[in-house]
Amino acid sequence: MANQDDKFKKVISHAKEYGYVFQSSEIYDGLSAVYDYAQNGVELKKNIRDYWWRAMVQMNDNIVGLDAAIFMHPTTWKASGHVDAFNDPLIDNKDSKKRYRADVLVEDYCLKIEAKIEKEVKKAQKRFGETFDKAEFISTNPRVLGYQEKIDSILSRLGKSLESEDLADVKSLIEELQIVDPLTGSKNWTDVKQFNLMFGTKLGASAESAMDLHLRPETAQGIFVNFLNVQKTGRMKLPFGIAQTGKAFRNEIVARQFIFRMREFEQMEMQFFIKPGTQGEWFKHWKDARMKWHLSLGLGNENYRFHDHEKLAHYADAATDIEFRFPFGFKELEGIHSRTDFDLKAHEEHSGKKLQYFDHAENKSYTPYVLETSIGLDRMFLAVFSNSFVEEELENNTTRTVLRLPAVLAPFKAAVLPLVKKDGLPEIAKQIVDDLKWDFNVAYDEKDAVGRRYRRQDANGTPFCITVDHDTLEDNAVTIRHRDTMEQKRVKIEDLREIIKKEVDVRSWLMKM
Ligand code: GAP
Q1: How far is the CA of 121 from the centre of ligand 1 (A)?
Q2: Following DSSP, what letter does each residue of 491-511 receive, concatenated?
Q3: In ligand 1, which atom is closest to the CA atom of 217?
Q4: Of 158, 220, 245, 366, which residue has the fewest beta carbons closer than 10 angstroms?
Q5: Angle at 214 (CA atoms; ends 213, 216), nearest 5 degrees
Q6: Where are the alpha helices (DSSP H) in 256-325?
Q7: Distance between CA 140 and CA 135 in Å, rounded?
Q8: pLDDT computed for residue 397 by the predictor
Q9: How far is Cα 283 from Cα 267, in angstroms, rounded to an integer?
Q10: DSSP code per residue over 164-179
Q11: Could you give phi then psi for residue 195, rounded to 5 degrees?
């Protein structure tokens, strides 16, 4: 755990040091859980967004894009259920005055029991050596079974209490388990209360006529309210999808873990409209397709897992999360939800407008069902960035920090470095930058010794360094160095474009899906 915390701290400081992510309004001591993307971060974020957009919109002829406004008519949020049900149960500690999510306190308690199971497994693994069968051990060892039973019973009670809004029982559970304030150890808790996560704002010039609005807590509703407009004007036939990327806002009670849980963040969502009754097969389809998209980036298959929901949101008949192994453990990265006809029916009811699809083959109208894929762009950024951050021991007993970003996502694809700042080398290097920049984002760097420049580009995730030296004046060739292998090769300047393209081209990455 200490190691993981350590790594996470390094990831956060690397993100700042290399111009990826800054605390918002830092000169005023920052704003909690709000972040700015700096010169490199904005490129990485854009490349992730593009990689998603290409896979979802460009590669599927039945999915189209949308960019709906952040402000929406207030009834939208009544219809969607967010006004009444978009709540988190919060609890305050009277001594520390700190606020927590009551359900998270209980879940963290269960994680501690899970850690005890892991400890037992490790001990047994050591004792039995190669003959150790983990699955058999977990299903038969009385101590492990006892721990598991305890976790199941706690989570089942928590689920039931939340479902029935029995907040007094959530508090009783916290007291019975003797859960303490993680910061101070105090058990002096207030009652549990519901807290709506939407931010409010006002539209209009005068206080009397101003209309209360909410900043959207998800991009999805912009898609639902435009469903019929897009279907009609695009002459779309079921099944078809509408995809959108954009900002969403949630007044999270406990916003921590850097850009994992933010108050202002970006989502990449797709609503896939289908014939009722086919949701089972489409749920499976989108689970597979989205997992393939993740795996195509090569962050390690062992770092992903599905987590099927037992407790479903008010709108869903099936749901799963794609979880990723962040530096602080496996956590939700993307949600795939079978949302039935809940949203379209609710908007129909609240707006009085028909939101149905006329099926020519069946000669009848009906409300489509919806399959949703929803991923946080910032969370994806954190997954990519933290997974790519490596401190490597080299053969000569030195270490190097390298950001092994998937080349397709790297902010800069290459850096061009004149060996020295004279003898006409900078001019050739700048000419190479001018040629390559038509196709790729390319950096020019002439400061410091070339070894230091290599390290700087490694730490920045640049897949290639191109060095112009005195031989270049004679042979029109340069040295190209690969970030991950550190291998260097002499190549003709005219071949650079093809060499880089082979590694960074979206096509070859998406073909791995
Ligand atoms: N339209 C469905 C929806 O919004 P969600 O599970 O609440 O579902 C979807 O959110 C995704 O948005 C999550 O899987 C996560 O990646 C991202 N997300 C949600 N809340 C977030 C937050 N406070 N900060 C950063 N990302 C968040």
Answers
A1: 33
A2: EEGGGHHHHHHHHH-HHHHHT
A3: 4
A4: 366
A5: 135
A6: 279-296
A7: 9
A8: 86
A9: 20
A10: TT-HHHHHHHHHHTT-
A11: -135, 120
User: Residue 89: is it exposed, middle or buried by C-beta count within 10 angstroms (0-12/13-18/19+)?
Assistant: buried
Whole-number pLDDT of residue 410: 98
* Rounded Cα gap, residues 291 and 282, in angstroms: 14
List the single range of 10-19, 197-206, 299-308, 412-421 with lowest mean pLDDT: 197-206
What residue has token string 């999510």? 101
Q: How far is CA 388 from CA 265, 316, 405, 410, 430, in A?
A: 22, 34, 5, 11, 29
Q: Please classify residue 255 by burial: count the beta carbons closer than 10 Å to its beta carbon, then call 0-12 exposed, 13-18 middle and 19+ buried.
A: middle
Pocket probe mutation, ligand 1, options 265, 306, 384, 385, max atoms within 8 Å of Cβ:
265
pTM: 0.90
**Would you say the CB of residue 419 lies under 6 angstroms from ligand 1?**
no
269 ligand 1 Cβ < 6 A? yes
Q: Which two tokens stand for residue 123?
A: 């001990």
Q: Which residues pair with 261 in a beta bridge?
A: none
C-alpha to C-alpha distance for 201 and 211, rounded to whole angstroms: 8
Nearest-angstrom CA–CA distance, 313 and 88? 13
Sign of CA dihedral 222, 35, 510, 512: negative
Residues 500 and 495: their CA atoms lie apart, in Å, by 9
**Spatial contact of 341 and 368, defined as CB atoms under 8 Å apart:** yes
Centre of ligand 1 to C-alpha 332, Å, is 9
271: pLDDT strictly greater than 70: yes
Can you tell me which atom of ligand 1 is nearest the CA of 267?
Answer: 12
For the chain, the distance separating the N- and C-terminal CA atoms, rounded to the nearest angstrom, is 33
Give the number of residues written for the chain: 513
Q: Report pLDDT for 130.
A: 86
Task: Kindly report the number of other CB atoms within 10 A of residue 252's CB atom.
Answer: 17
The 10s digit of each residue's pLDDT in 8-31 is 999 999 999 999 999 999 999 999
What's the whole-number mean pLDDT along residues 163-182? 94
User: Which tokens in the block code for residue 323?
Assistant: 């979880």
Strand partners, 213: 201
